[in-house]
Amino acid sequence: LCLCQCRMVCKEVPAETMYDVLHDIEYRRKWDTNVIETFDIGKLTVNADVDYLLIYRKDYIIMNYSVKHAKYPPKKDMVRAVSLQTGYMIQSQGPSHCTLMYMAQVDPRGSLPKWVVNKSSHFLAPRAMKKIHKACLKYSEWKQRHNPGFKPWLYPEQATLPSIPLSELSIQRAESLENIDESSLTEAQEREDSD
């Protein structure tokens, strides 16, 4: 699978707003039509859940990759994609502009040939970035109506997630991906896997 990389200057979007939009799960359900289900499972430390990292100044890095957790086994009639590495870098370009850089290496699994995945990533990634930019332009207004002070990605004391020991997680590595095409699972297999 190829590594897809994109860069976009986002006028009228401060870096802080971009960072909030990429973290706000409630808002993501509104603007990202590709999300079927999303929720937080837990936190590793007071400042880190499984999928993000805040760095210095007004620049932000958000990185994620797929992990397996015994409490969240495969689901019937679903194909679980694997993020080998996915990330955003947000750089402030002043008080009202930022640059968004996106990198992704994802295996959607299932029956899609790798060449189709590689080819489609070259137009799907830029389309996704435009969608993110559009969502950022609407975020301030939306957030004012939806729990405006709640930002646990910025204020760890607001987080109510349970702690997850690292020992409960295992990384999905590219060289050792098992078949996780879940569309052929039966209900019995699903129950057996979760016991």
Describe the 3D structure:
- With 195 residues, the chain is α+β, with helices and mostly antiparallel strands.
- The chain has a domain of 127 residues: 2-Layer Sandwich (Alpha-D-Glucose-1,6-Bisphosphate, Chain A, domain 4), CATH 3.30.530.20.
- It is built from 4 helices and 8 strands.
- Helix 1 packs across helix 3.
- The C terminus is likely disordered.
Summary keywords:
195 residues; two-stranded antiparallel ribbon; 4 helices; 8 strands; START-like_dom_sf
Outline the secondary-structure elements.
Elements: E1 4-11, H1 15-23, H2 25-31, E2 43-45, E3 48-49, E4 60-64, E5 67-69, E6 82-92, E7 97-107, H3 114-145, E8 169-171, H4 187-194
Antiparallel strand pairs: 1-7, 2-3, 4-6, 5-8, 6-7
Helix pairs in contact: 1-3
Percentage of residues assigned to helices = 25-40%
- Quaternary organisation of the protein chains: single chain
CATH architectural type of one domain: 2-Layer Sandwich
Note the main sheet. 4 strands, antiparallel
Shape: globular
The CATH class of one domain is identified as: Alpha Beta
Number of strands: 8
Q: Strand order, biggest sheet? A: 1-7-6-4
Order of helices and strands: EHHEEEEEEHEH
* Intertermini distance: 34 Å
Task: Supply the helix-strand structural class.
Answer: alpha+beta
Strand content: 15-25%
Pfam families: START
InterPro entries: START-like_dom_sf, START_lipid-bd_dom, START_lipid_transfer
Organism: Monopterus albus (Swamp eel)
GO molecular function, one term: lipid binding
